[in-house]
Amino acid sequence: MAMRTGRPHSTRYELHAPWGMRFPASTGAGFHVVLQGSCWLIPPRPEPPIALGVGDVVLARSGIAHGLADSLSSPLTEFQLGPGNVPYSQVRCEGLGPPTVLLCGAYALDQSRTHPLLAEVPPIVHLPAQVSRHSSLRAAVELLGSEIARPLPGIDAIVPALLDTLLLYILRAWFEQESSHEGSTGWAAALSDPAIVAALAAIHHEPAYPWSVAELGTRAGLSRAAFARRFTAQIGQPPLAYVTWWRMTKAAHLLRESDAPLRVVAKRAGYTSEIAFAAAFKREYGLTPGQYRADMC
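RE: above sequence
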């Protein structure tokens, strides 16, 4: 998850009616899964409230305020992240009404490098239970819920990995849903195009490799010209421009999340020269790698 900064967090809520939570706009994305009972999702106006049932999954994009409540008449209280640096918590709200069990989580994302894939996602993604029955998504939800409900040794390492996995499965489910619509374009079309998927996988797995348009076309099973046209039309930028974008994104992640020396970061980004890497990084971010790392600490 090169777009993420810091550690993701998840909370298991057991709430007895009446209850309501307001989630303010933030720099990260948030998700909600209904494990038991039902509730209402209250998106930003003028969008209408959405009834949620068991198995429904919601993703709220960065900067989107929204609410959850047992009833549309219940007042909303401001959501507060629990204290501490652990990636999980549990909240139980006693009451006389019927219970709702939710799994909620948040991801802090790098706002300076919004992935074009995320830019195509609507402010609120609602995956009804019949869609979220995708086996991988369901398995990730069940594993995450089980870990948080019964914390055991190793949970601090397991939960962040499961949260990253869950976000990817939510996005995959939404893009699969969108690509099934006739006339889909952009990343929804790209992720259902085996040729483009093969090229993207090659770039993502080996960002330091000296890619050429011709070799990426070969990986995609297309001629150089046909591949370049299709890639640019679906991804929104030429193949080698995306290669550079991905290299710089990975480099920024290493600078933020590790203490790897600049020569190591440069090498992993495909540069044999630290000077060339620093110049390319500054063109993308407006800062030298050292300045960027210092600002992120």
